[in-house]
Amino acid sequence: MAMEAGDWGVSREILERYLKTGWAGRRILYEDMTDSTNHMLRRAAGEGAPHGTIAVADMQTAGKGRRGRTWESPAGSSIYMSILLRPDIAPEKTSMLTLVAALSAAEGIRQFTGGLMPMIKWPNDIILNGKKLAGILTEMSARSGQAACVITGIGINVNTPEFPGELAETATSLRMECGRVLNRAPVIAAVLERLEENYGTFLKTEDLTGLLDRYSAVLINRDRDVLIHAPGGVYRAHASGITDTGELVVQKPDGTVEKIYAGDVSVRGICGYA
């Protein structure tokens, strides 16, 4: 998919021109402005929306990231989308879908741009040149021992020309990296294409075995020292990679090896955000 300059918007009609998927995004819910696309899909899921339904908005008034952080969501600049998944898996396995989505976003962005090489800051931030380009937020509701639905939100900074204050030190956009305004719709299509394939690979084993090599290849934390921000305090460790169920493997200074779960901690680089 060639990179396209000029933004044509992200309406249902425009998105349908680019989608080449079998099930991902074949039903599109679009709003010019919404509270959040995850909320849109939660409401739709309660009304029986099918697997693969996506919600897209041009602006969010209550966008949020991981661990309750605010995700700035102004109009006309970025991608705010969520996808509804209805996997027939145990609820405890759904956390791995965040990593599946992160890999898909990184690969989709690379596919669209043809030159940029996004990395992943475990478990779900997309990093470019040391700054955050995109983030993932996965929410799940369970029923009778199985995941009733999983809603995965993906936010990508596309046409933001600059970031204010402290954000300028940690955030970037495709426009800032490429030097021009880009069309958001084919970015969404590329991410969904990669997600559809990667999700199918995940379901074959219900873990990350089939995706581990590709995820590890773009894991910016791999073989690097990191700071672990845990409930009991902050400590330094050396990250060696992830397990086939998505935990980050780290070694403490005393030689102790631990598996870190994404829901418990935040990971930062020793020198900077990544």
Question: Would you write up a description of this structure?
Answer:
The chain has 274 residues and is of the alpha+beta class. Helix content is 26%, strand content 30%. It has helices at residues 12-18, 37-46, 96-113, 167-170, 174-178, 184-205, 212-217; strands at 28-34, 54-60, 79-85, 119-121, 125-128, 131-143, 146-156, 224-230, 233-242, 248-251, 257-260, 266-269. The strands form two sheets. Strands 1-2-3-7-6-5-4 form a seven-stranded mixed sheet, sandwiched between helices. A five-stranded antiparallel sheet has the order 11-10-9-8-12, with no helix packed on it. Helix 2 links the parallel strand 1 and strand 2 (54-60).
Poorly predicted tracts of residues:
none
Major beta sheet summary: 7 strands, mixed
Beta percentage is 25-35%
Quaternary status: single chain
Distance between the termini: 28 Å
Strand segment count:
12
Secondary structure class reads: alpha+beta
Shape: globular
Average pLDDT value?
A: 90
Strand arrangement, largest sheet?
A: 1-2-3-7-6-5-4
The radius of gyration is 18 Å
Order of helices and strands: HEHEEHEEEEHHHHEEEEE
The helix count comes to 7
Helix fraction? 25-40%
